[in-house]
Amino acid sequence: MSEKDTGSVREELIKYFDGSERVAEIVDEEVPFPDGKLIVSRTNTKGIITHVNQAFVDMSAYSRDELIGANHNILRHPDMPAVAFKGLWDTIEGGEKWQGYVKNLRKDGRYYWVKATVIPNVREGKLVGYTSVRRKPSRSKIAESEALYVTLK
Amino acid sequence: MPFNFTVSPDFAPDHMSGWFYFNTWLQRNLGTDIHLELFDSFDEQREQIRAGKIDLIYANPYDASMLVREQGFKAVARPAGTRDEAVVVVPANSSVESVEDLMAGSRLATTADPDVHTIGMIMLEPADLDSSNISQREYDTYILVAKALLRGEADVGFFLKQGFDELSDLIKGQMRVLVSSQISVVHHALLVGPSLQDRFDDLSRMLVDMHTDEKGAGVLESMGLSRWEAMSVEQTEFMIDLIDTLTI
Ligand SMILES: Cc1cc2nc3c(=O)[nH]c(=O)nc-3n(C[C@H](O)[C@H](O)[C@H](O)COP(=O)(O)O)c2cc1C
């Protein structure tokens, strides 16, 4: 749990890359990453979720049915700068692996930090989608990322 | 020329004879000559793989990546129910209560087992530890990792979960698990090389039914396995993608 958490609740407008937006309830309270687990999801080439593991379901607080078929930006937290995701997409669309620290928004408005790796899935030479595996980040990397992301917003 | 079969060097020593019985069973059921060669080290085995000298292998998930993507191997089956998980362990009297208490300069006892080492290192990341700020020593077996911890020669050790669970209660009682991985999709698999792939379907059928036949069930038991499960191409690819994300 971050020392800066106040538990306060606010409504915030999230603007997505494609021009759509939604008002989300944001709760300033961290949910700790479960020790020893990996949070796994896969998407098609457009970023629509095709697979999630149980740890993903548990941490997101959405049901599996709500997640499969949804755009992966369902987890986008307003504290994340758009430029971070531009970097992600430029990298993976270029066929490379991307790694970074991401603050994710849960359905209940709380948040969790992850160290995420996203890789292109290539089958018989063709790109068929992407896989993301998240692991537990260190507190120091979270603090660095928080400091960096406020400057990028 | 007989086909060459080999087993990932991280198999449990107690099951060594089981792999020889399995080889005999395979030869009889496939009606072909197969030579089983066991290697002491991963490096020695990888050299033989790269030289194209292996036709069938019970592979560690980490090596499966290279075998499938670079050498044209195909996964035919995996053991039902067993998954490769790692545990991070400290001596019972250690002042370390959680991974985050481990400090730079910690002495790590590990093995050459690539999956356990990779997963173990990921479980140290929350403490900002990596190969640059710990001192690590590789031991040949999990018993030796345990001894290093008990003798105070190491502060933290990595074990294959199954390897740790199989230690005696007396030894286990002197250690404490800090964190256990729960990845559940990483496991060993039996892979077929290009030279043997015209027998892929026969092999797949035989393996999936192996536990239903009395002889087959006995051989499985001697290998410490309950039965084989067929593995699809996509299951294999998914596992490899996942391992790929763990190696950066
Ligand atoms: C495999 C994969 C996993 C992703 N995981 C996340 C995630 O966990 N959280 C997140 O905010 N964005 C994730 N993204 C990025 C989203 O697709 C999206 O770019 C981001 O949420 C920002 O939304 P927007 O691009 O619609 O503005 C992922 C993308 C891919 C391809």
Net shape of chain B? elongated
CATH architecture descriptor of the largest domain in chain B: 3-Layer(aba) Sandwich
Strand order of the largest sheet of chain B: 2-1-3-10-4-11
Rounded mean pLDDT score of chain A: 94
N-C termini distance of chain A: 23 Å
CATH topology of chain A: Beta-Lactamase
CATH superfamily of the largest domain in chain B: Periplasmic binding protein-like II
CATH level-4 homologous superfamily of chain A: PAS domain
CATH topology of the largest domain in chain B: D-Maltodextrin-Binding Protein, domain 2
Please give the most extensive interface between any two protein chains, plus how many residues each contributes.
Answer: A-B, 27 and 23 residues
Quaternary structure? heterodimer
User: Strand-and-helix sequence of chain A, N→C?
Assistant: EEEEHHHEEEH
Helix fraction of chain B by DSSP (H/I, runs of at least 4): 25-40%
| CATH class descriptor of chain A | Alpha Beta
Summarize the biggest pleated sheet of chain A: 5 strands, antiparallel
The tally of beta strands of chain B, per DSSP, is 11
Helix % of chain A is: 10-25%
Task: Count structural domains of chain A.
Answer: 1
* Small-molecule components bound: flavin mononucleotide
Question: Strand pairing plus helix content of chain B: what structural class?
Answer: alpha/beta
Keywords (chain A): Receptor
Pfam families (chain A): PAS_3
InterPro entries (chain A): PAS (IPR000014), PAS-like_dom_sf (IPR035965), PAS_fold_3 (IPR013655)
Protein name (chain A): Aerotaxis sensor receptor protein
